[in-house]
Design goal:
By secondary structure, this protein is an alpha+beta fold. The chain has a single domain, classed as Metal Transport, Frataxin, Chain A. It is about 25% helix and about 30% strand. The strands form two sheets. It has a three-stranded antiparallel sheet. A two-stranded antiparallel ribbon has the order 1-2.
Length: about 100
């Protein structure tokens, strides 16, 4: 199997693996909310255009903050942050 060295990940990955993050592109706030609700999250509080969803994942309380700005796509860095906040493995987000 060929490997590709991704310059920002500092690790060797299979050629088709480094593209995984691109599958998190194109998510709107509505998409994220629908996904979180489907995984047991409920609205905890909101302030202005920011919404916080809360759930117990793997025995830990998790809080995910979502900035709602219409139908605009959420930037990839923000999506990665929400994935980390949720405690849900990235592969579940990519399905």
């Amino acid at each position: 199997m060929q490997a590709f060295h991704h310059p920002t990940l500092f690790t060797w990955l299979p050629l088709n693996h480094w593209c995984m993050a691109s599958n998190l592109r194109g998510w709107s706030a509505q998409d994220v909310i629908k996904f979180l609700k489907g995984n047991g999250f409920t609205l905890h509080r909101s302030s202005g255009s920011h919404f916080q969803y809360k759930a117990i994942i793997a025995g830990q309380a998790r809080l995910v903050t979502i900035a709602f700005h219409g139908n605009r796509d959420i930037p990839i860095g923000t999506m990665n942050s929400m994935v980390r906040q949720s405690g849900i493995i990235k592969e579940s987000w990519l399905k």
